[in-house]
TrEMBL record:
Domain of life: Bacteria
Entry's family note: Belongs to the non-flavoprotein flavin reductase family. HpaC subfamily.
Name of the gene: hpaC
One Pfam family recorded for the sequence: Flavin_Reduct
Span of domain Flavin reductase like: 15-162
GO biological process: benzene-containing compound metabolic process; pyrimidine nucleobase catabolic process
Biochemical pathway: Aromatic compound metabolism; 4-hydroxyphenylacetate degradation; pyruvate and succinate semialdehyde from 4-hydroxyphenylacetate: step 1/7
SMART domains, per the entry: Flavin_Reduct
Gene Ontology terms for molecular function: FMN binding; NAD binding; oxidoreductase activity, acting on NAD(P)H; riboflavin reductase (NADPH) activity
Keywords per UniProt: Aromatic hydrocarbons catabolism, Flavoprotein, NAD, Oxidoreductase
PANTHER family in the record: FLAVIN REDUCTASE, FMN REDUCTASE (NADH) RUTF
NAD in keyword set: yes
Protein name: 4-hydroxyphenylacetate 3-monooxygenase reductase component
Provenance organism: Pseudomonas chlororaphis
Length: 170
C-alpha cells in the first residue's frame, strides 16, 4: 500500500464526512455479469435523464463495465447493508454467489436489478473520461423504477448507516 501525502489524506478525511447514498452498480453482457458497491454516483441532467458513475481504474470490474456498455444503479434501502458489504468485497463471497444471496431480477438486456431497491436506474454508458484514479462514466437512462417507501442506506464516517424516513403527521 502506498503512503498518502498530507493533502490526499486530508481529502479522504473530508470525503468521509460527506454522507452519500449507497448503491450497487451492476452490469451484464459480453464481458460477464458483475456488481460493485459505490457511493460516487450523482445526477447530471433530466433532459435526457443521465447519471455520472465513478469506478476506480484499478478495479478488475472497470473494464467489464466499459466492455458491456450498460449498467444499472441499484439505490440500496436501509435493510440492504449485507448486500453492500458483499458487493464491496468485504465478505469474501465470490461474484456469482453474491447474486444468489438476495433476490435479483433481470432488467433490460439482462441487467441485474435488485428486488426491493429504493430505485433502479438502467442505462447506456455514453461517455467515459479518465480522471486521476477513476473512470467517470456518463450514463443515459433508459429505465427508471422507484420504490415509494423504505429507509435509505448511507455511507458516513467510513461506515454504513440506516437513514430512516421521517414519519409524516396525519
Amino acid at each position: 500500500m502506498t503512503q498518502l501525502d498530507p493533502k490526499q489524506q486530508a481529502f479522504r478525511n473530508a470525503m468521509a464526512h460527506m454522507t452519500a447514498a449507497v448503491n450497487v452498480i451492476t452490469s451484464n453482457g459480453p464481458a460477464g455479469r458483475c456488481g460493485i458497491t459505490a457511493t460516487a454516483v450523482c445526477s447530471v441532467t433530466d433532459s435526457p435523464p443521465s447519471l455520472m458513475v465513478c469506478v476506480n481504474r484499478n478495479s478488475a470490474l472497470n473494464p467489464v463495465f466499459k466492455r458491456n456498455g450498460r449498467l444499472c444503479v441499484n439505490v440500496l434501502c436501509g435493510e440492504h447493508e449485507e448486500v453492500a458489504r458483499h458487493f464491496a468485497g468485504m465478505t469474501g463471497v465470490e461474484m456469482e454467489q453474491r447474486f444468489s444471496l438476495h433476490p435479483w431480477r433481470e432488467g433490460q438486456d439482462a441487467l441485474p436489478v435488485l428486488d426491493g431497491a429504493l430505485a433502479s436506474l438502467q442505462g447506456r454508458i455514453t461517455e467515459v473520461q479518465e480522471i486521476g484514479t477513476h473512470s467517470v462514466m456518463l450514463v443515459q437512462l433508459d429505465e427508471i423504477c422507484v420504490r415509494e417507501h423504505g429507509d435509505s442506506l448511507v455511507y458516513f464516517s467510513r461506515g454504513f448507516h440506516r437513514l430512516q424516513r421521517a414519519v409524516q403527521a396525519a
